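RETRY 2/3 - previous attempt timed out on the joint model. Re-submitting the same 272-residue input unchanged.
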Amino acid sequence: MAPSYFLAPIVDSSSTFKDDIFKGKVLFCTGGGSGICKGMTEAIMRHGADAVIVGRKADRLAASAKELSEKTGKTCIPAQADVRDPKSLKDAVQKTIERFGKIDFVICGAAGNFMAPISGLSENAFRTVIEIDTLGTYNTIKATIPHVRKSKGAYICVSATLHYRGTPYQAHVSAAKAGVDAISNALATEEGPWGVRSNVIAPGFTSGTEGMRVMSGNKSNTADGFSNPLGRFTEIPDLANAAVFLFSPAACYITGQVLPVDGGGEHLRGDF
Ligand code: HXC
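RETRY 2/3 succeeded.
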């Protein structure tokens, strides 16, 4: 393990971007009830957007929507849907249009994860993660694309860095996230002529998330032997800042990119 001479600061996007860059914009975010996608939604709302957060757990969604509205002074509403079910997603989109009249930005973030070796993974277990992550991303894009075309908006898909090399016990998630990257790239090429952009954010090990809990075997914010060039785990504000940038006009010529936000860790090499 290399010595850490430097620890990257944790920066709030409000210190860098103007408060009103997303004024009048509407965000539709799957997985927005908790963790990384909730943090991205908060940052985008702090810059002026209203939002709809989509997920399976009605109670958690309602509480998060209330919290996000109170924290940002903008409007966030919950829409209960399972990204595996196209009909429930269509209903969530309809609710968004009835409330806000349009969709500018979409975050495809709903995901599922658990650790399991291929030899112990059932067919249904593998299929479940593919259905949530990959099919769910496709379903979300399919349900929103007519509206995003109208607004010449943008997509961010939340992926991972696991599939850049072999990550044990993560074959299902690695396959699912490779598919997410591929869908975003295809979307970028197909929809660019309509004025729509699509990019991927690939988080590293992110403190305080369900993914970190699963990957570290319930040890919350620790991982044995972990280190990276910038000296710490990914924090949710790092990912939120990347989302603000990619939706902002400053990124208007950036599409079809996969942006690892991992302190130069997993995407550069296996061991540092
Ligand atoms: C082996 C497992 C398992 C485990 C579930 N299964 N957990 N197999 N090890 N730990 C199997 C079940 O036995 C079943 O197969 C199949 O998977 C479906 O399980 P269900 O519980 O019926 O599915 P469901 O209720 O839809 O739940 C989906 C889930 C769950 C993915 C299993 O964990 C979930 O809803 N997670 C959402 C929250 C989450 O995981 N967030 C973290 C995302 S982090 P059988 O054969 O028995 O029927 C992330 C980042 C990755 O994605 C990058 C990190 C760096």
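The mean pLDDT is 93. Closing ticket.
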